[in-house]
Design a protein that fits this description.
Elements: E1 28-30, E2 37-39, E3 47-53, H1 62-73, E4 78-84, H2 96-107, H3 126-135, E5 145-148, E6 155-158, H4 167-178
Parallel strand pairs: 3-4
Antiparallel strand pairs: 1-2, 3-5, 5-6
């Protein structure tokens, strides 16, 4: 038996029992920043913004707004999760190390990001398969955003042209942050 579950797999044991974790978060992935395997269950009870990113896209500047959103609301329970993808226009060709360095030095990104899916398309990864199945919305380009409530079950989809600082987007997040976490 393997000591560390494969990225994208369901962990056999974690600090939070799988039964207490919504299906969307019952996965482990490798951190882009550290390379360490992480259970997404650690984000249970948080409001999430899940976004597919790319370093060479017309929307790449949205990193700045995403980071500002994360810094403004993280103490209230918001977490932005970035998923680099080379699926749309081949605009994320770099290695994980290149991507991490670019995000840190160019935009000061501190929100959690995960390694680029190497062998499979982003939409076929377990997390994105669940987001798509729940919303019926498949990302059509980079910087497609999903906002997930604290229960991990209610999900809204926002296309790339919706800015992270746009009033409607921020309003959705603020509404979800006011909701009490499930106990």
């Amino acid at each position: 038996s393997a000591a560390t579950p494969a990225p994208g797999s369901r962990p056999e044991s974690a600090a939070t029992p799988a039964a207490d974790c919504p299906p969307l978060l019952r996965h482990t992935l490798n951190s882009l920043q550290t390379g360490q395997t992480q259970s997404l269950c650690q984000y249970r009870g948080k409001v999430l913004v899940i976004v597919n990113t790319a370093s060479y896209c017309g929307y790449t500047y949205q990193y700045e707004g995403l980071e500002a959103l994360y810094r403004k609301y993280k103490d209230r329970g918001l977490v932005v999760l970035g998923f680099p993808s080379n699926d749309y226009g081949a605009q994320e060709p770099g290695t994980n190390k290149d991507i991490a360095e670019f995000c840190r030095t160019t935009y000061g990104v501190e929100f959690p990001m995960f390694e680029k899916a190497a062998a499979t398309k982003l939409v076929s990864t377990p997390v994105y398969a669940e987001l798509i199945a729940t919303t019926g919305k498949t990302p059509q380009w980079n910087f497609h955003k999903y906002v997930v409530d604290r229960s991990g079950r209610r999900i809204r989809s926002f296309p790339p042209d919706v800015e992270p600082t746009q009033a409607g987007f921020v309003g959705t997040i603020e509404t979800l942050l006011r909701e009490k976490p499930a106990t």
